[in-house]
Amino acid sequence: MPVEEVLPAFAEAFPFERFNAMQAETLPAVLDTEENVVVSAPTASGKTAVAEVAICRTLEEGGTALFLAPLRALTNEKEREWERFEELGYSVYVVTGERDLNPRRAERADVLVMTPEKADSATRKRDSRRYSFMTDIDCCIIDEVHLLDSEERGSVLEVTISRLRRLCDPRVVALSATMPNVGDVAAWLDALEETTFSFGDSYRPVPLAADVRTYSRGENAFADKYRRLYRALDLAEPHIREDGQALVFVSSRQDTVQAAKKARDELAGRDIPVSARGDYDFHTEADDLADDTLRQSVLDGVGFHHAGLAREDRNRVEEWFREGKIQLLFSTSTLAWGVNLPARCVIIRDTTYHDPLEGEVEMSPLDVLQMLGRAGRPGYDDRGYAWVVCAPDSADRYRRLLEDGKTIESQLVDRSADATGDRSAATDLAVHLNAEIALGTVRDVDDAMDWLDTTFYYVRAQRSAAPVSDADLRERVSRTLEWLVDREFVEIDGLAVEPTALGRLASEFYLRLPTARSFADLAEHEALSTADVLVAVATAAEFDSVSARSDEQDAIDAVLGNRAEGHDPGARKVLAILRAGMNGTTPAELRSDAWVIRQNALRLLAALRAIVDRFGTGADANLVRRIEARVETGISEDAVGLTAIDGVGSTRAASLATAGYQSPADVVDASVSELAAAGLSDGVAERVHESATELPVVDVDWGAFPERIGRGERAMQEVTVRTTAGNARAALSVTVNDVEMTSKSTYLGATTLPVGVFGSSTDSLEFAVRVVFPDLPLTPVVRTRQVDVTE
């Protein structure tokens, strides 16, 4: 069916001229009805075009479309692809956590592109001006809705769609790879039978032959990788010899590089002809690659692809693979969810991978099916070939997966949760129910049941082989609420349910509830230390599955010494990464996981600061803020205040510290030319100097404070604390001989504190005014005054 006939105003937005059979069957449902649509179809059958048709219809009616992509990398790809819509006068705007949000652009966008996690965050904040655009969505397209089955991310997608439907009731178009229970997803989304489509393998552009091959597992995991690699090359060799291509999925970025290096030698050793070796024009093109190892590899017809490559290098690899110049490509699993890059032969070499937060993780069944679905090039191959390489004891499990597929389950509730309800903390139900209570969506048990009724879990509970009754569901919700009440996340007054301050903070910062509870308990301690803070983060539930590999132990011990000996190896690893990061010297053995662990730790530190600020003291909140800044920048404790200056991150802070600057006050006292001499450009030096002047500068006026007082005498005095520059929220306290007399939290302009001076039995009194800034990594300001006690 010609695109020009179906969507004449949008024909230029499509990279093809005719819809294929699968796409054509869905057109009446997408274009001629207002109903929700569910499409389940084989990988590479053209589901993206269905999404684009739904977008076109929404734009034609003047509405706003939201596209939910399963990976952040795909949001960037869609932004590039959908420049076609921009050329037609429509605005496409990507909203992700790694980009600064422009609320005006988001509000005016015709097409929004987000991940489920960002959409979850944005819908939680929809009452703020920055995210109010989330209440004005007309059509929501879910790409890869079978992500519902993901243990880590499925519940986020589920509750986000449920919340969005309650907020603005957009039309939902859900796209999925082949799944046995497409009817369950349709029931969840209220899609009619005539707008629900389940396309079988006959709609694949190329038939697929998928199977399992085993290898002889040994005792050495490193050697096993090479055994699997040789097995994969045995499977790929016949196709490469026939001028076909093979795509091999491995577990990590480093593995793509190492496997490619070994494969180059093997291809040469087996005398397998590779066309790229004699293509001198291609050799010239390869000179433009930024990655030296990749440049050498592609000249032998072998490439590698992962998210760590420069975008230009990734684009060239994809282009050369499509053109057949690269005949053997090693990639991480992200390519399976992203670029449509089919190959005659697809092989999964690694069925497990190392996750910095989860340790050694088995690849999900959905990932396996997604990868294998890439086999077969339309227009080139009569058949695609796909294999899983695994140990013999896993072979039957993977064969059953290939034969029967994977039923999509809700991950909102742990089905193994016991009847006592004590495992509520381990389920996503408690986390998301707390969030809905914090948002005001759920105000009593009936509201909670109404909310649960909108979830995919409710559908699966009714339709699974072992159905769960409404009474049982209500009991489960009641137990979860009791658990939340016992741990002070919510309060129940009669039938009404209200969030507590802790419940709101847990929701705001996406904390696991045991972590939020432990942080609140820590906040009640007096005078936290750096060790207290770091141990609280390292032992948080978010890091429960972190493991320490044997080759990392020496590096961990070198950083920690005898500290934290009572904690498990995973917590010690996190602690070592945080300690080393604060000093800017992460050991090489820990660097592969350090970035992910630090990013998660920074989120936890921000949450801990907010919780300590609410339930503890401003001084402790300031300590956490300074630790957070040091983990992020690697700057020394003496110079951490520099990071409070807007525009000063790790590099500039290090340059300033090396030049002898220790605080924003030092920067204010310097000239722009002196700052430039410290390594900043003239323009940056000027902006940094200006930003430093906007930070508070504390002045303490002791007024008529006496130098001496008679024993037994009493006098009330006033001490004025003011800022002579910028303003900020401050916590003030006055102590005498280290005993606190008075405290106050305020936005620091000019504040007067009453101070009693009593002639006690001691010979002298030392009064100290302490000013800390809970939101800024500025070192505390302490001013003292001594009063002698006379007879």
Please explain how this structure is put together:
The chain is α/β, with parallel strands linked by helices. 43% of the residues lie in helices and 17% in strands. The protein contains 32 helices and 25 strands. A seven-stranded parallel beta sheet has the order 3-4-2-5-6-1-7, with helices on both faces. Strands 8-15-12-9-11-10 form a six-stranded parallel beta sheet, sandwiched between helices. Strands 19-25-24-21-22 form a five-stranded mixed beta sheet. The N and C termini lie far apart (104 Å). Residues 415-426 have low confidence and may be disordered.
Fill in the keyword field for this structure.
alpha/beta, 32 helices, 791 residues, six-stranded parallel sheet, single chain
What would a concise description of this structure say?
The protein has 791 residues and is an alpha/beta fold. It has 32 helices and 25 strands. A hairpin with an 8-residue loop joins strand 24 and strand 25 (781-790).
- Rg over C-alpha atoms, rounded to the nearest angstrom: 30 Å
Beta fraction of the residues?
15-25%
Cα shape? globular
Fraction of residues in helices?
A: 40-55%
Q: Tell me the strand order in the biggest sheet.
A: 3-4-2-5-6-1-7
Assembly annotation: single chain
**What is the average of the pLDDT values?**
90
